């Protein structure tokens, strides 16, 4: 369950947070496939409670396993998966296995199901009170039983030790596998027992060859276990034997350094030496839909220049399976996606320069980000070599003889000759521009016969990164 099954020439996942299925299908065909993205993490597929003012987080309050949400219908979901697979882009579903909704009066769902949440009755599944842990509040992260058998912010906590509950969860996931999804994000995995999860994973169907997967392929599973390395009863090390884990420490350390609280030169040994899980077990990222709202240390689209530097570093470095966040703009924590007066989600608008409008940020359509996805594909299979740093926050490294990247997070210019490891010639810096019709719209870098080039990143430049690779040679 650790292989994302990206197609050749495709890499990196993008979380299209709160996007509609029809819009994702179009995005796969028009942008993600051609640009070499590997897959999309989509918002939850299961029916959720309709909550006043339609906050984004209503989707984390399931009411049934019916595939009807504000992202679209069952038919639209099936159509999206097929169209994305066809252009080499995989779909990963955000699966909420830990809980159902909290308590709400007159609860009804996006598929019109009803529930009596106060008595833990969800007839559209059906679940009754006996399928849940006896309600108690999670309030002690030093106690694994409290963390796993009590309610996360009042969300009714399913008992995954019951065969009945396991079967409901497995059936839901298998139905998604059967229409072609490549895997799942496991929401709140920290709040479930690894042994129960492993039983559930073991019962999942293989991915099907008719959807372009290799024979006997297992679904990719990446589990949300928030573990920054502090002392808690539950740790990420309990979860990575059978499936991948979302590496929060990776995200924390990257934001910390690019904010200026740690020197970039220390990234010379970035990886397990920092206390991260093994590369092959790690889903890595800079920000996610939670941390961009509730963790002020984490970089987001709102800190554009240093955010793009952190994302570029993630995509340039071979560690882990990277996930790019694609957000909608928000002023307050609860604000839902761009929507009309009836609560229907609006589609993003796409401008001439590739960027989005209509309240959608679409970080994945920022040149500095999608060009680094291409970089990552081009250098695949190589290691980091010829690391250089100035003893501070100017760093550079090669990826074999296929790519070279440099960063300047110091408050003074970077202007020096560096080994790029690339064949001599003229290269287009894919951060300041793109190679279009044989011309570079940004800086050109001249690599000498000895593999060296003059590398310049002035302190006041729009971007603090320079990246060249053999796929963008003039
Ligand atoms: C997750 N991972 O483990 C998701 O990434 C995260 O976004 C979810 O929280 C959480 N777990 C549960 O799936 C979000 C949001 C919460 C929100 C819940 C449920 O961050 O604020 O809680 O979804 O919608 C809300 C209210 C909270 C209330 C709760 C229950 O904010 O005050 O608690 O609903 O009604 C009484
Ligand atoms: Ca639980």
Structure description:
The protein has nine helices and 20 strands. The chain is 22% helix and 19% strand. It is an alpha/beta fold. Helix 6 links the parallel strand 6 (244-246) and strand 7. The chain has helices at residues 21-35, 74-86, 144-149, 163-178, 194-202, 248-261, 291-294, 304-316, 367-378; strands at 11-16, 37-42, 90-95, 183-186, 220-223, 244-246, 282-285, 321-326, 349-350, 356-357, 384-389, 394-399, 403-408, 414-419, 425-428, 435-436, 439-440, 444-447, 452-457, 465-469. The longest helix has 16 residues, at 163-178. The model has no long low-confidence stretch (mean pLDDT 98). The strands form six sheets. The protein has an eight-stranded parallel β-barrel, surrounded by six helices. It has a four-stranded antiparallel β-sheet with strand order 11-12-13-20, covered by helices on one side. Helix 4 (163-178) crosses helix 5. Bound molecules: ligand LM2 and calcium ion (CA). Calcium ion (CA) binds at residues 98, 148, 157, 191-192.
How much helicity do the residues have? Answer: 10-25%
Number of strand elements:
20
What gap, in angstroms, lies between the N and C termini?
A: 40 Å
Structural class: alpha/beta
Strand content: 15-25%
User: How many helix segments?
Assistant: 9
| Helix and strand pattern | EHEHEHHEHEEHEHHEEEHEEEEEEEEEE
What's the average pLDDT? Answer: 98
Hetero groups in this structure are: ligand LM2, calcium ion
What coarse outline follows from CA principal-axis ratios? globular
Strand order of the largest sheet: 1-2-3-4-5-6-7-8
Radius of gyration: 23 Å
Poorly predicted runs are: none
Report on the biggest sheet: 8 strands, parallel, barrel
């Amino acid at each position: 369950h650790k292989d994302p099954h990206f197609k050749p020439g495709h890499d990196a996942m993008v979380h299209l947070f709160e996007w509609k299925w029809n819009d994702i299908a179009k995005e796969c065909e028009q942008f993600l496939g051609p640009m070499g993205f590997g897959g999309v993490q989509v918002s939850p597929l299961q029916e959720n409670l309709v909550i006043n003012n339609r906050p984004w987080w209503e989707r984390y309050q399931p009411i049934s396993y019916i595939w009807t949400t504000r992202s679209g219908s069952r038919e639209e979901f099936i159509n999206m998966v097929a169209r994305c697979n066809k252009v080499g882009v995989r779909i990963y579903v955000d699966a909420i296995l830990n809980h159902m909704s909290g308590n709400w009066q007159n609860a009804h769902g996006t598929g019109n199901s009803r529930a009596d949440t106060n008595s833990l009755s969800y007839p559209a599944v059906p679940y009754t009170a006996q399928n849940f842990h006896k309600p108690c509040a999670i309030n002690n992260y030093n106690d694994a039983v409290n963390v796993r058998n009590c309610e996360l912010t009042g969300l009714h906590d399913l008992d995954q030790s019951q065969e009945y509950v396991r079967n409901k969860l497995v059936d839901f996931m298998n139905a998604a596998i059967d229409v072609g999804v490549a895997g799942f994000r496991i929401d709140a995995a920290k709040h479930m027992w690894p042994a129960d999860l492993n039983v559930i994973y073991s019962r999942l169907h293989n991915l099907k060859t008719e959807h372009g997967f290799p024979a006997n392929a297992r679904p990719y599973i990446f589990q949300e276990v928030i573990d920054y390395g502090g002392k808690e009863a539950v740790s990420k090390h309990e979860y990575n034997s059978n499936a991948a884990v979302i590496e929060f420490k990776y995200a924390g350390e990257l934001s910390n350094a690019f904010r200026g609280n740690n020197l970039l030169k220390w990234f010379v040994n970035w990886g397990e030496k920092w206390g991260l899980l093994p590369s092959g077990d790690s889903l890595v990222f800079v920000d996610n839909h939670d941390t961009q709202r509730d963790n002020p240390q984490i970089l987001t689209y709102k800190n554009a220049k240093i955010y793009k530097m952190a994302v570029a570093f993630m995509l340039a470095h071979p560690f882990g399976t990277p996930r790019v966040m694609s957000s909608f703009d928000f002023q307050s924590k609860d604000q839902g996606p761009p929507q009309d007066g009836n609560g229907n989600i609006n589609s993003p608008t796409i401008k001439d320069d590739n960027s989005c409008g209509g309240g959608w940020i679409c970080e994945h359509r920022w040149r500095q980000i999608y060009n680094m996805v291409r970089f990552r594909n081009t250098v695949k299979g190589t290691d980091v070599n010829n690391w250089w740093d100035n003893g501070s926050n100017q760093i550079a490294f090669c990826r074999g003889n296929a790519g070279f990247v440099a960063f300047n997070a110091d408050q003074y210019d970077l202007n020096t000759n560096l080994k790029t490891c690339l064949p001599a010639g003229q290269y287009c810096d894919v951060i300041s521009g793109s190679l279009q019709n044989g011309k570079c719209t940004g800086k050109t870098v001249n690599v000498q016969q000895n593999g060296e080039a003059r590398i310049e990143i002035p302190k006041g430049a729009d971007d603090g990164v320079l990246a060249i690779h053999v796929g963008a040679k003039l």
